[in-house]
Design goal:
It is a single chain. A five-stranded mixed sheet has the order 8-14-13-12-15, with no helix packed on it. Strands 1-4-9-7 form a four-stranded mixed sheet. The protein has a four-stranded antiparallel sheet with strand order 2-11-10-3. A hairpin with a 6-residue loop joins strand 13 and strand 14. The chain starts with 11 loop residues before the first helix and ends with a helix. The protein is α+β, with helices and mostly antiparallel strands. The protein has helices spanning 12-32, 66-83, 96-100, 129-139, 279-283; strands spanning 36-37, 48-56, 86-88, 92-95, 111-116, 119-124, 145-148, 154-155, 180-182, 189-195, 199-206, 212-226, 229-242, 249-262, 270-271.
C-alpha cells in the first residue's frame, strides 16, 4: 500500500511554508499554554542516579558519508550545552526544542544526517536525534511522564552495533516534532550530558532515591514482507521492579508498539498479506 504524497512534497517552497506554519503554531502554543517549562540549571549533581546510558558517536550506517557523522559530533557538542545540568522540578515540563532552539549555521551547526520523507539526507543540525534517543531511554527508566514523542516512520539502516531495541528512541525536528516529558512526582530530576572520546553519554539523576526501578524489554520483534516491501515491528514493554524485594515485579506496561517501513533487505523475514496486519499497522504504511 503506497503512502499518499503530501502536498508539501511537491515543491520545496510548499515544504518551506508547511514547516514554518507548524513552527508558528508551536511558538503560539509556547506563549499561550500554562505549562511550566524547565530552564534552570545546577552544576552540582543531584545525589541519586536513576539511569545512565551511552551511545557510540561514529558507527557504520550503510553507505552514508562519514563526514556527516563527524559533523554530527560537532552538532551534538553545541546542543548538549543547552541541556546539560538542567533541572526538572515537580510540575515542570522538559521540551527539547524549547531548550535547544533552532539549529542554524550562525550558531555553528553543520550539515549532518537527517531522516525525512523516507530517505537519509544532509541537513543543518542533522544528528541531534542521537540526544533525544538517549534522553527517551533514560526517561522510560523513570517515573517521568512522556507527553510528546515521535519515532521515524522508516528504518534506514541494518542493526550494525545497535544497542537499544528498535523503536525505543525519539526523533526531533524543530519545533513541531518535539520531545517532551513532565515531572509529575514530588522529587526534582536532573539531566547530565557529555561527550567522551567515542560516545555520547548521559545520566538522569534525582533528589530522592526510589524503592523501585524499571526494566525495559523488547517483545514480538519481526521483519515482514508485503508486496515486495519490507516492514519491521516490535513492542517495547516496561516492568516496574521493587529494588529491595528481590526484584519483585510491581507493574508491567506497554510503552509503545512500532511498525515501520524498512529500506534495506533483512536477513530473515516472513511474507504476509494485507489481511494479516492490524488496522493500526495498516495506518502506518
Amino acid at each position: 500500500m503506497a503512502r499518499r504524497k503530501l502536498l508539501s512534497q511537491y515543491h520545496p517552497a510548499l515544504y518551506f511554508l508547511s514547516v514554518w506554519e507548524k513552527r508558528i503554531r508551536r511558538y503560539i502554543w509556547w506563549k499561550c499554554n500554562k505549562e511550566s517549562y524547565a530552564f534552570q540549571k545546577q552544576n552540582d549533581k543531584l545525589p541519586f542516579r536513576v539511569k545512565k546510558h551511552q551511545s557510540v558517536l561514529i558507527r557504520k550506517l550503510g553507505d552514508a558519508d562519514l563526514v556527516l557523522q563527524y559533523n554530527k559530533v560537532e552538532n551534538l557538542k553545541i546542543a548538549i550545552q543547552e541541556i546539560n545540568n538542567i533541572l526538572i522540578k515537580p510540575g515542570e515540563t522538559f521540551s527539547f526544542c524549547n531548550l535547544v532552539g533552532i539549529p542554524t549555521k550562525r550558531k555553528g551547526y553543520k550539515l549532518g544526517m537527517e531522516l525525512t520523507f523516507g530517505e537519509a539526507r544532509a541537513g543543518i543540525g542533522g544528528g541531534l536525534c542521537q540526544i533525544s534517543n538517549l534522553l527517551h531511554w533514560l526517561v522510560i527508566h523513570s517515573p517521568l511522564l512522556v507527553t510528546e514523542r515521535y519515532h521515524h516512520s522508516f528504518d534506514p539502516f541494518p542493526d550494525h552495533n545497535r544497542v537499544l531495541p528498535f523503536g525505543s528512541g525519539a526523533t526531533v525536528f524543530f519545533n513541531y516534532r518535539d520531545y517532551c516529558f513532565k515531572n509529575t512526582t514530588n522529587a526534582t530530576f536532573q539531566l547530565n550530558l557529555w561527550l567522551s572520546e567515542k560516545c555520547l553519554e548521559g545520566e538522569l539523576r534525582c533528589s530522592e532515591e526510589f524503592d523501585f526501578a524499571y526494566h525495559v524489554e523488547e517483545r514480538e520483534h519481526e521483519f515482514i514482507k508485503l508486496n515486495n516491501q519490507f516492514y519491521r515491528k516490535n513492542e517495547i514493554w516496561r516492568n516496574k521492579i521493587a529494588k529491595f524485594k528481590s526484584g519483585k515485579v510491581l507493574e508491567t506496561d506497554l510503552v509503545t508498539k512500532n511498525f515501520a517501513r524498512v529500506v534495506y533487505t533483512p536477513d530473515m523475514y516472513r511474507e504476509v498479506t494485507l489481511e494479516d496486519l492490524t488496522e493500526e499497522q495498516k495506518a502506518k504504511m
